[in-house]
């Protein structure tokens, strides 16, 4: 019988659920989990919670929200003032993605599968992006390099792996840069350090050609959003925008995921 002391930790359970271990390690981890009295039940509950979070807003409802926003796009808009950080990047005025509101938690983003307030670095797990495409059946997880098309509605999530602050941006084949998180302010958002955390908004991909690339920049301390936006703007206009890293200070960690746009 597996003792509580040797019980597989939550971070390992998450990696098993995501299939993010080498085949041999994954098989060994599953075998270890099977020896635990409630191991397989823990895994099933984790996977169920993840599906429930991603399915909290049915695709049909997402489509209705997108269509409603599109119908209002020509309506007069109230004037607003940009913060200094936004003012550094004029191209953000041309938003490349249609924003759709989703239910959110009190911290500003959904939690999938759990909200575990660990403050230590999660050994062996690096910060990463998790992106799902909404569909009529069930959300489809998209890998780096996956095919996508204009009109696809995608849900962005992050795994902080112990980092405490982050920024999520994207850039597309037209060179447009979009800030996804934080929603406002000039400082990086506070991250939930473990688990898969879903942003409170889904996004409809527009008809920009070539690609849509998402970046998750994280750190152990707060940092300026403007640093990431400036780096994304600099990269957006280059031939290597779909593959090269952002030019960032050494204290910032970056992860990216690219969706290939096909006609």
TrEMBL record:
This is ActD-like protein. It comes from Myxococcus xanthus. The lineage of its organism: Bacteria, Pseudomonadati, Myxococcota, Myxococcia, Myxococcales.
């Amino acid at each position: 019988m597996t003792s509580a002391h040797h019980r597989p930790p939550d971070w390992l359970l998450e990696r098993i659920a995501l299939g993010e271990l080498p085949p041999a390690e994954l098989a060994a981890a599953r075998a270890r989990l099977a020896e635990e009295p409630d191991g397989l039940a823990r895994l099933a509950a984790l996977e169920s919670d993840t599906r429930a979070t991603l399915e909290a807003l049915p695709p049909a409802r997402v489509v209705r929200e997108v269509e409603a926003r599109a119908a209002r796009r020509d309506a007069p808009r109230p004037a607003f003032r940009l913060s200094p950080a936004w003012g550094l990047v004029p191209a953000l005025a041309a938003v490349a993605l249609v924003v759709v509101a989703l239910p959110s938690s009190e911290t500003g983003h959904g939690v999938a599968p759990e909200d575990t307030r660990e403050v230590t670095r999660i050994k062996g797990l690096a910060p990463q992006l998790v992106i799902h495409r909404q569909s009529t059946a069930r959300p489809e997880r998209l890998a780096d390099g996956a095919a996508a098309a204009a009109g696809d509605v995608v849900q962005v999530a992050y795994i902080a792996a112990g980092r405490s602050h982050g920024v999520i941006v994207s850039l597309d084949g037209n060179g447009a840069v979009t800030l996804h998180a934080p929603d406002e302010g000039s400082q990086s958002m506070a991250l939930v350090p473990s688990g898969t955390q879903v942003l409170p908004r889904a996004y409809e991909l527009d008809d920009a050609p070539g690609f849509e690339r998402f970046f998750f920049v994280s750190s152990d301390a707060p940092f300026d959003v403007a640093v990431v936006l400036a780096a994304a703007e600099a990269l957006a206009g280059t031939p290597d925008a779909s593959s090269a890293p952002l030019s960032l200070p050494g204290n910032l960690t970056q992860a990216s995921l690219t969706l290939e746009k096909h006609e």
